[in-house]
Protein 1
Amino acid sequence: MRVQEPLRYWFLPDHLTGDDSLSRQALRTVKIALAMLLWVPVFIIVYEYVDAPISAAVLGVAGAAVLVVLRSLRWGAPVRAVANAVTGLVCLTLVAISAATGGFDAPAFRWLAVVPLLGILLGGRVSGLVWTAVSLLSGTVFVLIRNHHGKLPSELTQDTLTLVSTCGDLGMISCVAIVTWLFDRSERSAQSMLLQARYAAEAATRAKSSFLANMSHELRTPMNGILGMTNLTLKTPLTRSQRDYLQTVKSSADSLLRIVDDILDFSKVEAGRLTFDQTDFKVADCISEAIQMVASQARSKGLAVSCSIADGVPTIVSGDPFRLRQVLLNLLCNAVKFTEQGRIDVTAETVPSENDAVEIRFRVTDTGVGIPGDKLESIFEAFVQADTSTTRTHGGTGLGLTISAELVELMGGRLQVSSTPGAGSCFEFTATFVRASDPDDSGATREAGRHSPATGVDGHDFHQVSPACDDTLICRNPVDPTVRPRALRRLRVLVADDNPINQRLAEVVLQQAGYDVTLVPNGQEAINRVAAEQFDVLLMDLSMPKVDGLTATSAIRAQESGSVRRLPIVALTANSSREDRDRCTAAGMDGFLVKPLDPAALTEEILRHCPAPAIRD
Ligand code: ADP
């Protein structure tokens, strides 16, 4: 449907139509200038009719000036300057006509009172004050002239003055009425346009949410197959390397499933379709289940996790334990993810409440990296992460806190954070539950176990990369059969990648192709290894902690300067845009491979850079 363009867009320059306050000010200026413009021909006719050429000429010039001023807004002149120009023109025109038609007694003189009003309306307080001073000064001059020298000479007789005055009043009123009607219509069409845009945006959001929900659902179905079959296969007799590969598949599928779950929840949040159960549950059990799910990862990092439930927290409450656990789990996962040493504490205490409901305050405190002050608000927005640098250490979607904040709000509370960078963070929220009629509830102080380092059932299976794979599978070169009679020296390939699964994949693929593989987890280690050892080719990821791939490449090129040897460096990255390719070339890379890894393309690329491998000794 074509939206009718409101009248105001005919006058406003494009750069103003998006800025609400400026465009409103510009619109007001245009309205008043147009009222003046309509007023001008009426008065020219009247003054011509009563034979007052000077006044008619002044009005003609003022009319032309108004047009120029209006056009200047279109040319991009500042709104404030145009507003003052319009006010100034009104003032000058009134003073000039008053002077020509009798000064203090002229009909135009009493319109001088309008000038300060225009000043305030168009330019604001300061401009209003300035134009009040100007019109008061002009008025005072006319009063002084009248008191000291009598009347100013007038081209008009008393009868004509009355006629001009009456026409002026009528003309002014009808012009303002016409302009007001015109702009009211244009405002209404602007509003209907806004309404249409809102309906369209709402429909788009609904479509996006349902697309996300459908996609997440469609993804979950095959994911279940992958996970289920992997788990089944893991229970059968396997070689060590087969078990190792399948564990990698399972761990990747688990991560993917968590992302899909996040997206599904986020789409529900956006569509307002999150649902809540109402069932009796034990608060301590809910907290302990969440802790147990991160226990193994916390343990592997040597982190202590403790939990204490304060006096007065009822043993059993009525609410949605799944949603509460989801929030606690997300906060705990983040705490473990962003803490390298120290501890994580979970506490629960009641908040005094007037009605019968139970309000509980939960806190998850860590001694991790913390969050910079300027990021404390934005981390609750969807897809926002405090650290967005290319050297980012941790993964994630940036959706967890958005979903948690929404869940907490639906549980009648608010999720808040306080943090000291380098010292740790404290996420805190309150949630309201219905008091359950529990005969056992004594309300006594409880310590729900101290986990140091975290102990308990391992809910999530966090994958550990195991050592090198089964040698029986490797030492083949699947690419070029003509190369295979040749006995080649095994080329030495250095792989810099921070993701253990990507490392593992590259390692297996390269070993199967017959290469010697060395793995490093970041750019800094790549620089160090290249300085210390000889490699035939370096495969470099771009986003890595400490030093990213581009910086590492530049540093290696700087190290090489002056020497005849130049190590071929090939980017191995999930960023596939033209700009990324150009950035790699500019940093000194020789090739570019896009993930997911294609084994044939990888070996081909390596052979391109090492065309004549040395004969094995
Ligand atoms: P994700 O963890 O998947 O990136 P979240 O929405 O859970 O997404 O978190 C958003 C960001 O908030 C994280 O990327 C991280 O920068 C910051 N953050 C969250 N929790 C912590 C924490 N306990 N310590 C430090 N930073 C945190």
Protein 2
Amino acid sequence: MRKLEELKTGKAKRLYNTDDATVLWVEYLDQATALNGKRKEKIASKGALNNQIDCLLFNYLIQNGIATDFIRQVSATEQLIHPVKMIPLEVVVRNLASGSFQRKFATTYLQPLSRPIVELFYKSDALDDPFINDDQVEVLGLASAAELAAIKQLALQINQLLQSRFAQANLTLVDFKIEVGYLAGQLVLADEISPDSCRLVDQTTQASLDKDVFRKQTGDLTTVYQEVLTRLQNSEVAHVSR
Ligand code: UDP
């Protein structure tokens, strides 16, 4: 497999095509952004940490029957994926109140929700990823009612699996964002799952172990992401040897 020319550079990843038309090469960058890219910083080791966390979580989800675009990790900062016809939605699942939900409804931070909820945002940097409801998704032709039902079911299934995997690492999954698309006609999980796209708190202390430390400038991103990776790796060994 050879990496050929660059196709696209996003906020935290660079995409290349390869000599195989069914394979893309992804490089995770040492870059962090907040406020929809308006604040940008270079952060050493971030690419390697997010790539390793993402590969570990995608491998775990695949082992548990989730269809994804992931092929394999190729280096600390790189992985191979299949090209996917992306649905331009950010699919957010919440277990506890935080972030925009907490601000919007003036709830208590980390207030438990009576059941996990799914929220949809229209993926558009120009529009600042606005909240979008089911009717709007259908009328804009982004997904049909049946597709939306399948997307929500997939997101909730991933939530259950991630909640139990993070719990093994003494982490509570507060909320997370996924992106989905079609691969050979099948709905699949695509893009990234990392502390950039999840809110995680320590089960005991409730300390944040995710991008909130960068957003709120309350801690060192590298230290926190390394802690998440180490905990996941250590609990993986425990899991396998059991
Ligand atoms: N999220 C993301 N990308 C975005 C917006 C949100 O990955 O562009 C994630 C975020 O990390 C959190 C979840 O989606 O885990 C819910 O985010 P929320 O709507 O609370 O927005 P925020 O407070 O992060 O602006």
